[in-house]
Amino acid sequence: GQTMTMITDTKFIVYGGQTFDPADDSAKPLSDLFVYCLLENKWSKPINCDGVARTWHTANFLPQRQLLLCFGGDVEDEKTGKMTSTDQVMVLDCEIFLWYPPTVSGQIPSGRSGHSASVFEDTSELVVFGGVKNGKWLNSASVLDTNRWRWSTIRAVGVAPPHRSYHSSTAIKTDDGTRLVIFGGNDDSKCFNTVHLLERVGNGKFGWSHPKCSGDLPKPRTGHTATLLPDGHTILIYGGWDPNTEDENSDEDLVFGDSFLLDTKTWTWSKGPSPRFGATYQSGKSAAKNGGRSRVGHSAVLAPCSSDGLQVLAFGGRLPGNEFA
């Protein structure tokens, strides 16, 4: 439930999420923030930079202003100690590593977690879709004008996808603007493997459409990651799980370790590469063990690699056997 966001060509931020507390056998939200430097292959922790303790939030980077924009998620109620969904927006200035709450206005969306949020770079808008609040699944969409910090509700033409949470959304630039590709997720009884599009259709209005995909379709899943590859039209889906299905080889929930590629020009699925373990280091020592490729609730970014190419890096998540990575 943590977020992982590139802030330069060589650095990414990991913020929030949850960890297991053996003292009372429960998961606790995290407030800490770490920076990973790809050049030095090293983690660092900025001083006095902890944010709000939250999990299943979203974090998006606005490069022109060097801002990390965080919305929603589950936070711990100070009075009851119970987890509750928030509608709070917090911004981290990545030049001085200072958090602040922008003054937002307009039609503020309800608090939620497990939603998706993507930036439309051509308009500096943050588009939020779906999520869950207090056991109620959502399929509403809202847009935040990050220049004015003003929310508005999207009343799109067409039929919206079914209510869902823990899905993915990927913003793709086209000759006609930006489109949002929604994949997967779950409601209270099932997971999805369908694809849905949200894009502007004229006069500033948004519209929903639902492309029919072919090829090697991934199994229905939720809690996966979706990463746009350098060609600008291929999305890599990795991991996730189906909490309603058990693994054929065990009595545990089905956690995926596979990857798939979606060509958004032809709407064709194909099987993707097999993930491999890459150790990270702190003070010259390995900071993590190989938890295996199967995981859910992890996060991923597209980052440079030593061979002058690009790589998809995945971090964290829950492993089979209810172990945190």
Secondary structure elements and their pairing?
Layout: E1 3-6, E2 11-15, E3 18-21, E4 26-29, E5 33-37, E6 42-44, E7 58-62, E8 67-71, E9 74-76, E10 83-85, E11 89-93, E12 98-100, E13 105-106, E14 116-120, E15 125-133, E16 136-145, E17 150-153, E18 168-174, E19 177-183, E20 195-202, E21 205-209, E22 214-215, E23 225-228, E24 234-238, E25 241-246, E26 253-255, E27 259-263, E28 268-271, E29 281-282, E30 285-286, E31 299-304, E32 310-315, E33 318-319, E34 323-324
Parallel strand pairs: 13-17, 22-28
Antiparallel strand pairs: 1-2, 2-5, 3-4, 5-6, 7-8, 8-11, 9-10, 11-12, 14-15, 15-16, 16-17, 18-19, 19-20, 20-21, 23-24, 24-27, 25-26, 27-28, 29-30, 31-32, 33-34
Give an overview of the whole structure.
The protein has 325 residues and is mainly β. 0% of the residues lie in helices and 48% in strands. The protein has no helices and 34 strands. The chain has strands spanning 3-6, 11-15, 18-21, 26-29, 33-37, 42-44, 58-62, 67-71, 74-76, 83-85, 89-93, 98-100, 105-106, 116-120, 125-133, 136-145, 150-153, 168-174, 177-183, 195-202, 205-209, 214-215, 225-228, 234-238, 241-246, 253-255, 259-263, 268-271, 281-282, 285-286, 299-304, 310-315, 318-319, 323-324. The strands form eleven sheets. The protein has a five-stranded mixed β-sheet, with no helix packed on it. A hairpin with a 6-residue loop joins β9 (74-76) and β10. The mean pLDDT is 91.
